[in-house]
User: Fold these one by one.
Assistant:
Number 1:
Amino acid sequence: LIIVLDFGGQYNQLIARRVRECNVYAEVHPYTMSIDEIKKMNPKGIIFTGGPNSVYKADSPSYSKEIFELGIPILGICYGSQLMAHVLGGKVATAPVSEYGRTEVTVDKNSILFKDVNKSTICWMSHTDYIAEAPEGFVSTATTPNCPFAAMENAEKNLYATQFHPEVMHTEEGMKMLRAFVMDVCKCSGDWKMDSFVEDTIKSLREKIGNGKVLCALSGGVDSSVAAVLLSKAVGKQLTCVFVDQGLLRKNEGDEVEAVFGPDGPYDLNFIRVNAQERFYQKLAGVVEPEAKRKIIGEEFIRVFEEEAKKIGAVDFLVQGTIYPDVIESGLGKSATIKSHHNVGGLPDYVDFKEIVEPLRLLFKDEVRKAGRELGIPEYLVSRQPFPGPGLGIRIVGEVTAEKVKIVQDADYIYREEIAKAGLDKGLGQYFAALTNMRSVGVMGDERTYDYAVALRAVCTSDFMTADCADIPFEVLQRVMTRIINEVKGVNRVMYDLTSKPPGTIEFE
Ligand code: XMP
């Protein structure tokens, strides 16, 4: 185990993730964690993260000197490196020249950290303070024209520090440095794999939950599915999964989820499917404003879930499929509300439970997928593209009706089928059909038609904050168009949405 001690930087989970990529398990903990707790966890190494403060200011995050006397190897990164220098008697000051971005760094190849790295290597810097004087016993192991201690170390005591960020991609040889720290300095064995995460998590869930009752809102998405399977493996029938079919799922999706998690599926759990389609359609009747629709869908979901939870009675634990990016997003919360996102995050107030369990809280999406595969969850569930909580409700512009849901489901199904057939599905961030609120005149078999227009959307994105329209081959689009017009009643026009995000958003509402 490597402990990543969080001093408030942006890349903390990324550090843990990079360490896990070396097949060594890492966890992020706040810098307020006590020295006794650290000793109890018996880590093989500790990494101090970056952070926005200045170490010499009185109220900046710090750690007692004792941590350097435990004999545990420590790597300080950015703020963490300055903290190491400051606490051990070196001097940290405002740098005469701040360095931001890609910076050429000259390293000392005799340092164990840089033994596999080129003498001159590009690293990512982001600092206004710097180490002006190293503490006693330390030597400089990397420099830039403006930074005499771009890295320093006291090899005898296994203390290492880098002013730059080895964890970010822009530090071209950063992985080699981190690998050298965890493997050669900390002497980790490097045999941790996703199956150890799965195994350890199941074990610790079992210990935590004991004989308790557990409730999970299952959406059929990747995160809640993986969380549910972990819980089912840990506590079997003590787990009840409630799956609300709000009538806004993709074609056949409700049955697919039931096939996997229901009584005929491979997992040991109680599965309740609530068919609440009519209820949702009634609430949505006549509503056209996107935020109003989102609100209704979110609230109705909670109500249905609450009713089911009441039938079960008090539970001890509520499972949430929160993953790491959700943690960051909810932490920021200062940006303007473009759309009010709906997911199970709003549940806790409404259900009688004692504690929340979030077994995926430390994982990135691709790590969740890996865990899912490790657990034997079917590939079509594990590699599923993101699907919003309000479902097709926000892919039908204007009023939602059962008839429109059917149209968009059928069109979307054809689109997804053709994209997969053309082998394009793996390369796209998200792709789906939406139903515009526009009807127009057409002609089919010498008859006049007055039907809806379907919009096809496909975007390339890695973070879903920005996105580009995907370059789908014209013949694929044409095939999709022909099939939708021929096979889906009520549609006489198909369009392809070229808009990037921004200015568009990925979903239509
Ligand atoms: P937008 O449309 O905001 O979507 O560009 C960005 C990503 O977020 C998904 N999305 C949601 N996910 N609840 C969710 O869980 C929501 O209410 C919601 N709205 C949008 C969207 O599918 C895309 O991946």
Number 2:
Amino acid sequence: MNFNLSEEHVMIQQAARDFAQNELLPEVIERDTHQTFPAAQVKKMGEMGFLGMMVDPKYGGAGMDSISYVLAMEEIAKVDASAAVVMSVNNSLVCAGLEKYCNEDQKMKYLVPLASGEVIGAFALSEPEAGSDATSQKTTAVDMGDHYLLNGTKNWITNGGTASYYIVIAQTDPEKKHKGINAFIVERGWEGFEIGPKEDKLGIRGSDTHSLLFTDVKVPKENRIGDDGFGFNFAMGVLNGGRIGIASQALGIASGAYELALKYAKERKAFGTEIINHQAIAFKLADMATQITAARMLCLKAASEKDQGKDISESGAMAKLYSSQVAMDTTIEAVQIHGGYGYVKEYHVERMMRDAKITQIYEGTSEIQKIVISRSIAKK
Ligand code: CAA
Ligand code: FAD
């Protein structure tokens, strides 16, 4: 693995950093307070190529590598983890899935507007009774000849209220268990497709999380992704890459909180000296810096392996498991370093602590990452 970033990588990182500071930072506290989706900012992210970063330019993408994606995600998440999850879902669950597994007609119709940021997408696997246990899909897609009839409920769907296109996973043949599951592209506005109320969340409050309700929705056959029964393998394949996105989001939350804590520790005085001169505070910062560096290495390793076309189920899961733990630990300590000021919104770190928690839950909980990793190492 080459640890040196190319000139292009540094440029992308700087562009994401400038965008985050200039466009995301100014109203991030208000968006968190009022649960406002960063619509104008997401539009600009699309214009900058951040919503289809790794997609081939012939499908409207920016044609960058996964290293660039990690670098940009970290910078965006440092400032606004809600904007970062919109970016992660659109890039690594929606666009990556469509580019890798869809046919040319599907790509021209759906991938082009999604990768260019004209519209955004959502990925709907989880259900009220099927989260970690994702093969237990209750949503059904009955084969009616020229179309499927979709019925059921999806839960916790990121970009649920703002997406134009949704990748929906559903059971077609329960007897075949996960081999009877299919993935479909569903358009917003189709008859029988209803969007539930917005969830009122602990963190990533600027992101838009909804349940989706399907009642006899007619999905044309040409909107199925891949062969009949490919849906579960599709979802797992997509999630392997998605976990790099969420790992990078977690990394960004951690490094954002660390940077604020370091700055504060150098300025705040107690007992006649800057608090960084108290070893208890300095050691917390030393732990944070070490763990963040290790998390960044895991994210870049997984990204590098993805770019080399390797199996990233293990490295993506490791990156997510570790980075999300670092995000949680770092943000808790960042609040501690800020003392009472850390407990109020103005200083940002309390929001980062709330935002960090979700990275241990979505795209596979930490317990599920350990299942993925342990199964992989057991096979060796
Ligand atoms: N990569 C590729 N294929 C995989 C895989 C992986 N990481 N994990 C499982 N599979 C394949 C298996 O090979 C098997 O396929 P075959 O039969 O063709 O060989 C099939 O999937 C079933 O595998 P298992 O028998 O191992 O299935 P299981 O029921 O034991 O569960 C699991 C596997 C790993 C726990 C899986 O259910 C899982 O990942 N659960 C977590 C779900 C999840 O991550 N949801 C995230 C929703 S999206 C989201 O959250 C977005 C957001 O927040 C922003
Ligand atoms: P459960 O699966 O019920 O798990 C409960 C607890 O049991 C967890 O601690 C879990 O780790 C543990 N557990 C379960 N099984 C095992 C086991 N075998 N061994 C050990 N421990 C186990 N989903 C989507 O499809 N698309 C999205 O865009 C999306 N966005 C989300 C956004 C937010 C804000 C949230 C909160 C969730 C989102 N999700 C999304 C859903 C998310 O992926 C699930 O919440 C997650 O996979 C966990 O499922 P669950 O909530 O049903 O918990």
